[in-house]
Amino acid sequence: MVCHLPIPPVFADDADQAPQTSTAPEIPNTDETPATDDSTEYTNSVSLTAPKALRAGEEVTFTFVCEGDSLRAAQGSVTYDPAVLTYVGSQAIPEDWEMTFSEGDGVIKYLGLSTENRGLSGKAELFSLTFRIADSAAEGNGIPFTLSDATVYDGNRELLLTGGEFTWAVTRPLSTQCTLEALSVVGGNLSPAFSPEITAYSVTLPYTVYYADISATACEYGQIKLSSRELKVGENEIRVTVISESGLQQVYTITVTRLADPNYVPSSDNRILSLDLSDGLLFPSFSPEITEYTVYLVKGQDVILTPTAADKGVAQSLTIPAEPAPGSTLDEATAGTFTIVCSAEDGTPRTYTFHTILLDTPEELEKVQTSVIAESPLTAILIFSFAAVTIFFLGFVVSHLFHARNGKKESAPTKEETESK
């Protein structure tokens, strides 16, 4: 027995129609009943409604509806088939009504009244009953209900409501099918040819097509969801998702290749317009037309070069490691020589080369930054050029003197040769 509220019979003659309790609510005084409009006629009927399909294994809630005028109390019983339905619970619907429910042997007895002496008129939802449908219930099986002794009190008299026999049929199970029955793209041919079991396709469309017009038909009860169908030049992936009644999903993908404009001339600009260094110093200052540079960096701190290519060109970032390259001496440590290749839209490449010089401390880098290298690149170029020529000239002189000395030693006469002369 399930008992929600301990409310005893209000006006029942048969004590077995509701559970007994120690206290009893008072019947509303008819002298205090407000006058009603007798011009409205009601059917004084009762019914059950089900808001959803009835499927095996699912819960379903039935709503008890009374139609009458100024209804203040109600009682009766609901008979159902316990072989098909399992009782779950019940709930009063009007906020000011208190109700009790007792259940057993396929019968639910109900009893309730308005605690504020407020009558319900018209079609009023009085309470709900929730059941679980047996897993064994097959499609088409009937679910019968009988509403017995449905009596209401309107403040003046008791009324026996009519309409107490109801039957619902078990609905088919939710479909689990989530496949396509047909798929096509306007203006192109799918590859491979469509088959419900194949989920990946490709198609080529001309440049003049900006939007993929896709026709898709789902299996019975299935729903279709499409991703964006706007097309850019090149490959575009479009997803066709089929959702079954039960919530299962299957995704079909179409790779749509939109061809390039046949009259389009790709850019041949393969320059790097700007170059950002995470650290260190670039010499000379970057210019798109200069392709050879020196990078000063401190040992132990890598430098990242981030290029910005011109007009749809492509250039990748470069990381220069702050450690000596194999074979470098301590006096002239270098991380090596690195390049960034910038490819134009038409594929034409341009190579930018970066030679490295490693400095021992950040202070040394700061000195370089404040030197003529940073202040006057042109002066620095002249100085470096003069230094290079000077080193070359000194090397040539030293080499010449070294060879000249060795030549004199080889040509000097011996003592015997001198004495013989």
Describe the structure.
The chain is elongated and about 115 Å long. It folds into three domains: 15-24 and 42-169, Immunoglobulin-like (Sandwich), CATH 2.60.40; 180-258, Immunoglobulin-like (Sandwich); 272-380, Immunoglobulin-like, CATH 2.60.40. It contains four helices and 23 strands. It has helices at 362-369, 372-375, 377-411, 415-420; strands at 45-49, 59-71, 73-80, 85-92, 97-104, 107-114, 120-133, 142-153, 158-160, 165-169, 180-185, 200-205, 214-218, 223-226, 234-243, 249-258, 272-277, 281-283, 292-298, 303-309, 318-320, 337-343, 349-359. It has 421 residues and is mainly beta.
SSE ordering: EEEEEEEEEEEEEEEEEEEEEEEHHHH
State the share of residues found in helices, binned by percent.
10-25%
Q: What's the CATH first level of the largest domain?
A: Mainly Beta
Number of domains: 3
Radius of gyration: 47 Å
Largest sheet: 6 strands, antiparallel
The general outline is elongated
CA-CA gap between termini: 148 Å
- Low-confidence stretches are 1-37, 386-391, 408-412, 414-418
CATH topology call of the largest domain: Immunoglobulin-like
Proportion of beta-strand residues: 35-45%
